[in-house]
Amino acid sequence: MAFELPELPYAYDALKESIDTRTMKIHHTKHHQGYTNKLNAAIEGTDLEKLSIVDLMKKAGSNPGVRNNGGGYYNHSLFWKIMSPEGGGAPKGKMAKLIKDNFGTFDKFKEAFAKAAGTRFGSGWAWLAVKRSGKLFITSTPNQDNPLMDCAENKGIPILGLDVWEHAYYLKYQNKRPDYVANFFNVVNWSQVSRNYSAAMAPKTKKKATKKKK
Ligand code: MN
After folding, report:
1. Checking CA distances to 190, which of 77, 114, 122, 210 falls within 20 to 30 Å?
2. Number of domains observed in the structure of the chain
3. CATH assignment of the domain containing 127
4. What is the pTM of this model?
C-alpha cells in the first residue's frame, strides 16, 4: 500500500510567530509530498512495499531511495506532530522529570539541543531520542537520516525532531538558524513528545508468543 501525505494537525498559518505561513505550505505540499511520492516510487513492485515506515528505516543504509525519501517521509510526519499553536513552554509531569533526570535542567536541555541544531553542517535534523533502556539523548543527522536507521551513528527512537534544512526556515530567518531554533521552542508540543516517549517504551507485540498459544 502506498504511503500518503499526512494532513497537518493545524492550519498553515497556525505557527506563524515561529514558522511563516508560506514556508509551512511549501514545506508540506511540495517537500513532504515530494518525499512521499519518491518513496512510493522507490518501493513500488518490490518486497519493501509490505513494510511499515519504521521497518523501512532499518533497511535505509543499503537503499538510497528509501534512505532519502523514506527518511524524508518519516521525519516530516513526526515534525508536524511535535509542534502546536498551543505548544511551547516547559514540559510537564513525566516528561519534565525525564528531561531533568537526563539533562539536569530544562535550560540545559534546550542549550544542548540548540547546539546540535546549530552545529549540524549543511542540511539535516536535530533529535531528542530514546534508547531501549529509556535513556534520552540528543543527536543530529545529515540530510534525511534519522536515529532509527541502520546506518545512524547514534541509534534510538526519535521523540522530538527539528528540521534544519534551509527550506524549513530561510524565507523568515535567512541565515539566522539560531533564531529559528529559539522560536521553535515556542511551539513544541510537549504532550505529543511525551506520548512519543510512551509509545517508544511500550513493549513490542510478541508475534511468536501469540503463535505458541494453543
Ligand atoms: Mn524539510
Report:
1. 122
2. 1
3. 3.55.40.20
4. 0.94
